[in-house]
Amino acid sequence: MHGPSAEPASATPSVTLLTEGTYPHSHGGVSVWCDQLVQGMPDVDFRVIAVTGTGREQLAWQPPGHVRGVEAVPLWGPPPSGRAPRGRALRRFLTAYELFLLTLLDPAQEHHFSRAFHRLADHATEGTLFPALRGEEAVRLLARVWNRPGLATADARPTLHDALTATDLLEHALRPLAARPPAEGITHAVSGGLATLPGLVAHHRHGTPFLLTEHGIYLRERYLGFRAEPYRWPVKALMLGLFRMLAVESYRTAALVTPGNRYNRRWEEHGGTPSDRIRTVYNGVDPAAFPPAGPEPEVPTLSWAGRVDPIKGLETLIRAFALVRAEIPDARLRLFGGTPRGGEGYRTACENLAAELGVGDAVTFEGRVEDIRDAYAAGNVVMLSSISEGFPFTLIEAMSCGRATVSTDVGGVREAVGDSGLVVPPRDAPSMARAALTLLRDPGLRARMGEAARLRVIEQFTLRQTISAFRDIYHDLAGLRQPVPAHTPLARPAPVMAMAAGGAG
């Protein structure tokens, strides 16, 4: 169900969507958003450069005919073709690579990042970057750079094994540079991070306008994710330096940044984006596609929908449910959504936690549901327990279905809910349990909040509004309407840890 299209314009630019781990090879909120955008503009020629995992992923979405091509760029598939540089070419590469490494590790060298990055992009085009990164010289160069006096990494005594690990991670992370950068139209990255690489290169080489949409803050999510990674600190410092500098470069390069909520906007401004180049565009749903869900289940039930992933905070939800069950012994928790490849261990840990807390018989992992509306109808209350979010589709879909919600106060959740649902701190099981109990015990309050939630969606968060906003933006960037303001000088980027701490939700 794709909902209404915006009114077509007389002339529309071509758009290359830049994705990572989402459309058209994976399910999830960002993929839904991409599909809605594409389906809503049938007169636009879309193309997709999709950063994927292994390259063996099947299409999860069948792109319509006006998507002229999908180029998959696997991070962990066979390496891009090319030949290792030798002699003078190798020395030229190592000079560029040393500067690039320093921009990731030494704050005094950050202003060289753009120049160093595009030198590596040139090596990728020549076919020398990836073979060079797989060579011994690149590994030993990183080991020497890490141990330079004055760099914080030297105190951690990085090993040659660390250098091998980090160089391998970096080689894979840079593989999107193997994609052919679009010379025409507009590039539209639907997240920060690795998806932006072809857009940054296209702008540098061809002046292709670059648009960046952030649903969640990619940099913040990398900080959260790397906490659990097994790498030693020098490896983490290098990779997080890459993600941070890509964020800064993306904000510097983008003709327009379109966060999905005001929370993201604060991060983007803190990262150096001028406020006149930021425009908030909320996610939207078609209220006709998500009508009121109908009668509630007879057994008190909490439902949840999403992908089974640590960032969704399911441990907190299960702990909260155990507290609910202590008060309402027949309560149930139903979890709808698939487990991505590699996430099986997390799901098992969640199942074990439910068993340890004595609620294993009342917690069911339902898997992927054919019609997501069934997931919302399955609960008296719909829960969202994430530790990081942008402007979550599952929340506004549940609101459109007229269900009362309990959500964690992350990202744009509070902007979405307003006073039509209950919002609690993330990772706070007792607060989540109290909110769920309040709603389960008060049918009248649930009904009032559900009605207010649907009305809020109809008034503020419709799909038609979202599509119309991006149609206008595409025309602006193509010069078919009023031009987007020109670039202005950026403030010096904030220190890494300051940015990481500033977005804790």
Automatic annotation (TrEMBL):
Annotated InterPro entries: DUF3492, PelF-like
SUPFAM superfamilies: UDP-Glycosyltransferase/glycogen phosphorylase (SSF53756)
DUF3492 domain sequence ranges: 14-275
A Pfam family: Glyco_trans_1_4
Top-level taxon: Bacteria
Example of a GO MF term: glycosyltransferase activity
Transmembrane segments: none
NCBIfam families found in the cross-reference section: PelF
Protein name in the entry: D-inositol 3-phosphate glycosyltransferase
Organism of derivation: Streptomyces triculaminicus
Lineage, highest ranks first: Bacteria, Bacillati, Actinomycetota, Actinomycetes, Kitasatosporales
